[in-house]
Write a structure and sequence with these properties.
By secondary structure, this protein is of the alpha/beta class. About 55% of the residues lie in helices and about 10% in strands. The chain is built from nine helices and five strands.
């Protein structure tokens, strides 16, 4: 099966592009969605994360990492790991093996001529070898900053810090086999996705014929 790894910087529009592929009937597996499923209230992985990161979060921000309903305060955890590379490495070492295994399991169940795997940190984690093609959703950094401030209520300094913690735009594009440009309104995405859909079906055809 042809596996396309969809990636892009924060607020580049990865989720919107993934939904466009889904409307065409393409199986989509999103690493962030899998992560949320694995860390539902009471899950073993959530307990491990809370045990490991509750203290540094309290010490740094004076707040609990556990929300009132027992779920994870993802915004607070994201803020911690973007500000501290060592904490980010610790979280990834704890969670990524479980996420990868769950994605492999879902992939084998879902089938399809090809699949889209949304992997936000594909470049940062050198995961290109786990997919057949890398699709980058690209937009100018100024637009990312604007979207982050609107979407997350971040100020400019916080938004710039989030961008700085990720791979650069140039680094992502250097890994790209295909690029979707998301610098206009959402309507501009559909034709790009449809063109790639036709391309991927063609690329997948020899595999499905075996």
């Amino acid at each position: 099966m042809l596996i396309v790894g969809l990636t892009g910087g924060i607020a580049s529009g990865k989720s919107t592009v993934a939904r466009e592929f889904q409307t065409l009937g393409v199986p989509v597996i999103d690493a962030d969605v899998v992560s949320r499923e694995l860390m539902t209230a009471g899950s073993p992985l959530l307990q491990q994360v809370l045990t490991r990161f509750e203290t540094p979060v309290r010490e740094r921000y004076g707040a609990s990492l556990r929300s009132a309903d027992g779920t994870l305060d993802r915004k607070l955890l994201r803020r911690l790991i973007f500000e501290d590379a060592r904490e980010r490495d610790a979280l990834e070492e704890m969670t990524h093996p479980a996420i990868r295994e769950r994605m492999r399991s879902l992939s084998s169940q879902m089938g399809g001529a090809y699949q889209i795997h949304v992997i936000p940190l594909l470049v940062e984690n050198q995961a290109a070898s786990r997919v057949d093609r890398v699709l980058v959703v690209d937009c100018p950094q100024a637009l990312q900053l604007q979207r982050l401030q609107v979407r997350d209520g971040a100020d400019e300094a916080q938004a710039r810090a989030l961008l700085a913690a990720q791979a650069s735009r140039a680094a992502r594009l250097a890994h790209a086999d295909d690029v979707i440009t998301n610098d206009a309104d959402a309507a501009a995405l559909a034709p790009q996705v449809q063109a790639l859909h036709r391309k991927y079906l063609t690329l997948a055809a020899p595999r499905t014929a075996r």
